[in-house]
Amino acid sequence: MQNNQNEHKDLTGKTALVTGGTKGIGKAIADRLLQAGARVIVTARNAPEESNFDHHFIAADLTQAGQVTRLAEDINEKFGGIDILIDNIGGLTTPGGGFSALTDQHWESELQLNLLSAIRLDRALLPKMLERKSGVIIHMSSIAGLLPLWEHNMAYAVAKAALNSYSKALANELAGKGVRVLTVSPGATRTPPMENFIQQVASSAGLTYEEGLRHLMREIGGIPMGRMAEPDEVASLVYFLVSPAAAYLTGANYLIDGGALPVA
User: Fold this and answer.
1) Which keywords does this Swiss-Prot/TrEMBL entry list (predicted)?
2) Parts of the chain with a pLDDT under 50
3) 111 lies in which domain range?
4) Total domains, the chain
């Protein structure tokens, strides 16, 4: 799935929305879809920092139902709907320490960000896809949904596990209606949020960053490939899944973790 500058732009004429697409994995996905010929809309809470941002940007906080509705209305009015939806927004925002460290507010905020935002946006944008009997939805999950670390990410892992189940149910509902739904679960990926997380783990244990990284890798059983993923590698998988080459794929959860998860 390496990028090939001579490949056909097989997403020409398609319109894609990437949530959380101004940095990290989301930005890499947006850039990859643009390279393949798609018109790309990006949404996030804050505008992109770079001045030469190549995508259509619409600011929205997708944890707020009213802003999801306004975003969908804006997209439907300006672009006539979308063909590809990448539900990438998410992240670990709650403290470690297990169940006793987590309040109702922690659980609610993690579910809003990592589950309900995707559900609301799907519900708002699916009608246009169903009218055309065509579309692809990718839910960006995490191997945490299958391999939770209670010391560090309990609420996040539970939210991602719920996203996995929702994604499979939606895929089954829409399979005969022309819309494909897939899940992508990255493992450790070299992004600023991941590096911040590793630094927090290291600091709490009195370790250096490199020691904290090794400690975290041991907790998940190690990464057989010996390194974290790069955002572009995740983006290449997402591009394949939304491309015509993956036309018979739906309902599956694709792990991209360097072999870290012991059982798929």
Assistant:
1) Oxidoreductase
2) 1-6
3) 15-187+230-256
4) 2
Cα separation of 221 and 143, whole Å?
A: 12
Q: What gap in Å lies between CA 91 and CA 89, rounded to an integer?
A: 7
Length of the chain: 264
Q: What is the DSSP string of 48-108?
A: -S-TT--SEEEE--TTSHHHHHHHHHHHHHHHS--SEEEE------S-SS-GGG--HHHHH
Q: Kindly give the pairing relationship between strand 39-44 and strand 15-19.
A: parallel
Shared domain for 40 and 26, answered yes or no, is yes
Task: Give the per-residue pLDDT at 51.
Answer: 63
Q: Helix 209-219 to helix 150-174 angle, to the nearest 10 degrees? A: 60
60, 165: one domain: yes
Q: Which phi and psi angles does 16 have, rounded to 5°?
A: -120, 145
Calpha distance 93→155 (Å, rounded): 9
Report the pLDDT value the prediction gives residue 164, as an integer from 0 to 100.
Answer: 98
| Residue numbers annotated as active site | 156
Q: What integer pLDDT is reported at residue 7 of this predicted model?
A: 55
Cα(195)–Cα(213) distance, integer angstroms: 9
In whole angstroms, what separates CA 99 from the centre of its chain? 25
**Distance, CA of 156 to CA of 162 (rounded, Å):** 10
Q: Give the model confidence (pLDDT) of 69-117 as tens digits.
A: 999 999 999 999 999 999 999 988 888 888 999 999 999 999 999 999 9
N-terminal to C-terminal alpha carbon distance within the chain: 21
- Amino acid in position 75: I
Can you read off the two tokens belonging to residue 44?
């996030």
